[in-house]
Amino acid sequence: MSPRRWASPKRLAVGALFLPLAVAIAFEGAAVNTDIASSFDAHEVDHVGSETCGECHRKQHRSFAKTFHGRMTREASEETVLGDFDDAELLYGGVTARMHRGPEGQFRITFAGPGATGRRTVEVVRTVGSHRYQQYLAEEDGVFARLPVAWYPREDRWFHMNGAFLTPDPPPPSPGGTISEEDYNRHVVRWNDNCIFCHNVGANPGRVGERFESEVAELGVACEACHGPGGRHMSARRDPVRSLALHFADDDGTIVNPEDLSPSRSADICGRCHGQRIADDVQGFMEEGDPFVPGEDLALYTAPLFRDTTISGNEGVFAMRFWGDGTPRLTAYAYQGLLASPCAQRGELTCITCHGMHEGRPAGQLRPEARGDGACIDCHEDLGLDSAVEAHTHHAVSSSGSRCVSCHMPPIVYGLIGAHISHRIENPDPAAAEAVERPDACTLCHVERTRGWAIDEVARLWGDGDVADAAAERMDTTGMMGDDEAAPLSEVLRALFGGDPIERSVAAEALGAPRRAATEATRAARLGALFDVMANDPYPAVRRIAWRAARTVCNTAATSEVHRLPRLPDAAWMRYRPASAREQRDAAIESLLAALPPDTTTPPDPEVIAPLRAAASETAIHIGE
């Protein structure tokens, strides 16, 4: 017989403690299950703030704090204000905006102009944004107003908000005068019933007649914007036994986890802000705030805007915010793009399939496994092998033409002074794109080619029978810019000069995207076209995108074996300040051209682009984001 092993006093003590704890957890678990099974009104739950969440969820709080969501709206301080307030000046339309400090270090902006504009000084009290650009708020009698100038961190410069929203240059002021006060302040909006909804937690405009008593649970897009109000969760977790029971429960019914929701309910959380919406009870929103809480069906309160959405029976109100086939053309409609995607309609795709609030780099917040083709291959497993990819794309597996996003999510969406990928996942079809007059993935990559070439190529590579044979016979080099004076203008150049401002923005961005090595002639044609846009396009946003594209063409060419170009200097374009905007552009472009070797640029034929520009002036749109 083996000797009996007696438990040590320490083991006995632990066992004595564990038994009642286990019994307590069992009873508490039953109570937790009852709580989860019973419904409660999340609208009656208090918000607690991200700092409170961070007391327990330290890792998540640290990762959230690094995101641009977490820095969306903040009180103005030395830490939060990014702009240059060391007596920096911005001259626009005859009005000088001077950014300076008050006697106690306050951030102030003084606007001064002759005539009716006069002179006024405002104090910056809040900031909105910290990545693409930073906007500033002033406050008077409880009303916060977004100011007409903003800071562009990407280029360390001030700019007028006309250069962010798709608005053309206002009429030139008379000699020694200024543009109208209405034109200068066109993008000054009230924060209380506009920006407040999507840039904060628990927003309530609090409109009372013509006054506002606005409140937010927390400035910025913080924890409870995605997880719902945390008061019930915090109360349950204060009891250590109850907290442990919740930890082992199948579902913590006191808080929302977007990953535990259905794909559609999860997407609703993001769609609340990333998809502009319309409500039947607008007055209720203004007086009491948006009633939606995470986990609910967003459609209970609002409907996403689409191309055919009407207001008071008026049709076409939002048509210009979408391409002819209903695809969104502005970044504020990513949710609508998802809703139109087969991967969401017939599959499990949702926003957090690719994006994670606590993962990846702050820019884009892509989950590590979603970078490259990861998110797509997770479902389309048959394309996991290189040989399968090349058979599917008819492009080298290492080329951009074999990346899922390049073809299925092309950059046809304007926002934040740039062109961005579409969130409507679709198959590339240049013929269908031509029918609704929107850009197609093929010619946005093959910028020297015509739409006809793209249609023929698709038929040749993916078609069958007589169609493919006929397309192969028609294949030639027509459409190459600069290689053949008789060649038709490429689709991108046609849009660059003859499209509306969104089409021109998309085209300019495409000309600067890194592509396969270009010939000297095609690169010169690209630069010539971009310099022409920088000089003559009436929209400052389009001109800015063209400048960035031209700089990219030159900078990437510096590593080309075909032709080496110097890097374009930033200062020549951004720091030069002559008397008028037109003089500024002409002088800057002359300086840039002087920095390039002879014959580096080939200007477009004026007789070709003149009629395109004339048509474009008739289709100009005045639209924000």
The first-to-last residue Cα distance is 84 Å
DSSP summary, beta strand count:
18
Strand coverage percent: 5-15%
Helix content: 25-40%
Q: Unreliable stretches, pLDDT < 50, 5 or more residues?
A: 1-19, 21-25, 475-486, 559-564, 570-579
- SS class: alpha+beta
Average per-residue pLDDT, rounded, comes to 85
**Total helical segments:** 26
Q: What strand line-up does the widest sheet have?
A: 1-6-7-8
Write a brief caption for the model.
This protein has 625 residues and is α+β, with helices and mostly antiparallel strands.
Write up what this structure looks like.
38% of the residues lie in helices and 11% in strands. The longest helix has 29 residues, at 9-37. The protein has a four-stranded antiparallel β-sheet, with no helix packed on it. A four-stranded antiparallel β-sheet has the order 2-3-4-5, with no helix packed on it. Strands 9-10 form a two-stranded antiparallel ribbon. Among the domains are: 73-200, no CATH class; 428-625, no CATH class. A hairpin with a 4-residue loop joins strand 17 and strand 18 (419-420). It is an alpha+beta fold and 625 residues long. Helix 1 packs across helix 7, helix 2 crosses helix 3 (58-65) and helix 20 (491-498) packs across helix 21.
